[in-house]
C-alpha cells in the first residue's frame, strides 16, 4: 500500500512540475493565478469563511476557489496552491477534491510546497550555512510563511538541521506545535512538549525577538546551537549543530533537573 502511495505521490508531484512548465513559470514568487486558471479555476474569491479555503465545482470542468479573507496573504497563497493540488490529485489519481482524507491532504500540501517553492528555484537559493534570517529572505522571495519555507527547505535535504515551531500559551509557556523536523541529528522534544515561562531559557527568548540559541539537554548533556525568531505568538527555532555532551555541566544538570536544565543568558559552553 505504501508503494502505491509513493507511486501516486510521485505522479502527482510530476504533474505539479509539468503545470509549472506548461504555465511558463520562470521566477518567484510563482504566479499562482496563472496556475489556477490552467487547471480550470476560473474564479478566486476572498470571503468571510471559517475554513481556510474551499474548492467549488461549477460544472463543465470549471471551478471556483473561495479563500478566507481573514487569513494572512501567505496562508491564502498556500491554501490556493493546496486546492490546485486537489484538482491534480483528482485528475491523475481519482482522488478526493474536498479536504479531509489524511494522505490526500498530506499530498496536496506537498504539491502546494512544490508549486510555491519549485525545486529548480529554491535549490540554488539554499546556502549550506542557512540560518533563520536566510529562511526569512526565502520566505519573502517566495511569498510563503516562514514555517512552510522551513519545511520545504529541510524536506529538500540540502541542509542539516532541526526546525521547531512553538506556540506561546496565555501563561507565557511555549508548547511545541508540531513534530520537530530533524535532519542529521535528534532533538529531545516531542510534540506537546511545554517550556515553562519561568525557565531561564524561555526568559532569554522573551527578551529579544530573534537571536542566537543554545540549549543543553539535561539527561544527555548534549548541547545544541542555532537561532530563532519570534513572530507574534509563534517562536520558530532552527538548530544547526548538535555537539557532544558538555563535560561536567551536563552531568550536573542531569543530576539536578529543574531550572538548571536550561541555559540562561550566555548560552551553553561559552
Ligand atoms: Zn485539502
Give the C-alpha Rg: 21 Å
Largest sheet: 7 strands, antiparallel
Strand-pairing-aware structural class: alpha+beta
Hetero compounds: zinc ion
Mean pLDDT over the full residue set: 81
Shape: elongated
Can you tell me the CATH class of the largest domain?
A: Mainly Alpha
Sheet-strand content, in percent, reads: 15-25%
Percent in helix:
40-55%
| H/E element sequence | HHEEEHHHHHEEEEHEEEH
Q: Separation of termini?
A: 50 Å
According to CATH, the fold-level topology of the largest domain is Arc Repressor Mutant, subunit A
The overall number of domains is: 2
* Poorly predicted tracts of residues: 248-270
* Separate helix tally: 9
Secondary-structure arrangement, i.e. CATH architecture of the largest domain: Orthogonal Bundle
Number of strands: 10
Please give a structural write-up.
The chain is α+β, with helices and mostly antiparallel strands and 270 residues long. It folds into two domains: 122 residues, Arc Repressor Mutant, subunit A; 102 residues, Beta-Lactamase (2-Layer Sandwich). It is built from nine helices and ten strands. The strands form two sheets. Strands 4, 5, 6, 7, 8, 9 and 10 form a seven-stranded antiparallel sheet that branches. A three-stranded mixed sheet has the order 1-3-2. A hairpin with a 5-residue loop joins strand 4 and strand 5. The longest helix has 21 residues. The radius of gyration is 21 Å and the shape is elongated. The C terminus is likely disordered. The structure holds zinc ion.
